[in-house]
Design a protein that fits this description.
The chain is 50% helix and 13% strand. The chain is α+β, with helices and mostly antiparallel strands and 200 residues long. It folds into 2 domains: 70 residues, Winged helix-like DNA-binding domain superfamily/Winged helix DNA-binding domain (Arc Repressor Mutant, subunit A); 106 residues, Winged helix-like DNA-binding domain superfamily/Winged helix DNA-binding domain (Arc Repressor Mutant, subunit A, Orthogonal Bundle). It has a 3-stranded antiparallel sheet. Strands 4-6-5 form a 3-stranded antiparallel sheet. α2 crosses α3 and α6 packs across α8. The longest helix is centred in the first third of the chain and has 17 residues. It is elongated and about 75 Å long.
């Protein structure tokens, strides 16, 4: 016979998987026990989560129960759910991503030529973040890999398509320009991607 502890453990798993409020009738049918007994177990779990001040609470909604997050943790959840891939791009990554976005498909050699520095590590970082991908190979000596931006790039930076990229007449000049004359030009140069705090 299944124990009370096992039932409560199973209820936790069921609420996690179910997503929507799990009503006591559905839960009772799973265990083939009385609805009143299941309701008691739900209430006990609810009290345990509250007493331990866990980050997850159990909310009752019309004789159904559901996992919810603790209200005071909302600010941390909001920070977590912001586009972290955007925030964590370094200046080097912004430069490489801008070149790829405007010149795609483009080889690593072409990227290096525009920046005047090797970009291997940065390209690898952008690929790990799913912002760029290998689109194929160029029909030149050595058949170097061609890079292009992904749908993740469009989604994270708020573009519907590449046609919405800010207009830049010369991406090479923009990338190598060190002192933007005003905020608008600075935004254009960095594709409105925001500040950075890591190397890749």
């Amino acid at each position: 016979m299944i124990s009370k502890k096992q039932i409560k453990s199973a209820l936790e798993s069921m609420m996690f998987i179910w997503g929507e409020p799990l009503d006591i009738k559905t839960a009772a049918d799973v265990f083939d026990i009385d609805k009143g007994e299941i309701y008691t177990y739900f209430k006990e779990l609810q009290e345990e989560y509250e007493q331990e001040k866990r980050g997850i609470l159990i909310r009752e909604v019309n004789k159904a129960f559901q996992f919810v997050t603790r209200e005071e943790n909302a600010q941390y959840i909001e920070r977590l759910c912001t586009p972290v891939k955007v925030k964590r791009l370094s200046q080097s990554a912004l430069e490489v991503l801008a070149i790829i976005a405007y010149k795609q498909p483009v080889t690593k050699g072409e990227i290096d030529a525009i920046r005047g520095i090797k970009s291997d590590r940065v390209v690898e970082g952008l690929m790990r973040k799913d912002l760029i991908f290998e689109k194929g190979r160029a029909n030149t000596i050595g058949r170097p890999i061609l890079y292009a931006t992904t749908d993740t790039f469009l989604k994270n930076f708020g573009f519907t398509s590449l046609k919405e990229l800010p207009e830049i007449e010369d991406i090479e000049s923009a990338v190598n320009y060190q002192e933007p004359v005003d905020e608008l030009e600075a935004q254009q140069i960095t594709l409105n991607l925001g500040d950075s705090d890591e190397d890749q």
